[in-house]
Amino acid sequence: MDARTYLAKATPKSLRTRARILDAAMRLFAEIGYHAATNALIADAAKLTRGAMLYHFATREELVEAAIAHIEVERARLFEQAGSQPHPPGVDASEHAIDAYWALLHETPFVAFAELEAAARTDPMLRERLAAAQSAFDHAQVGRFGAMASAGADPRFQTSRDLGRFLLEGLARGAMTYDERARRERLLTVVKRAVRMLNRKGDIHELWAD
Predict the structure, then answer these.
(1) Helices (DSSP H) in 84-206: which residue ranges?
(2) pTM of the predicted protein model
């Protein structure tokens, strides 16, 4: 892209249009899936012609790369917003963090990213473009989830964060076919107990072998 083209695409109007396209892509990824959300459908959802869409994103690869960055910004924004909320009086910090992350996993940017991760297993282009965002998000958990859970940084606390995070992510993506609410609530209760146990200092931890 030459300097003149770059400046043309950096005008306030052009940036608003790009944001509209990326919002539409994120929403459709979450609602109908990555492969079903074609560039043509995304253009329609953004209320743009195919030609206008091509002006901003000439290829699927360009759109996907920009959409991943957009989704990551939105995930970080929601995470920071959740982390800035103090846990209610009388509520354990780790339980508050688990409830907050569970709620985040059902927000559009998180659902869209989970869909991209699932699709990336069989899509080399998507997998390559997603790798950096996955790594950045994983490293950011130390500060984000740790701050919400009021946990330290040693391996035991890191394990408590990983336990909570990955069990919640798996639960959010799982398919329960009966007694969904009761089974989910029991699992969330056990996750909270396990994370709280690992976060205790100076006690005996049956889940942690020194």
Answers:
(1) 93-104, 108-120, 124-149, 155-173, 180-199
(2) 0.86
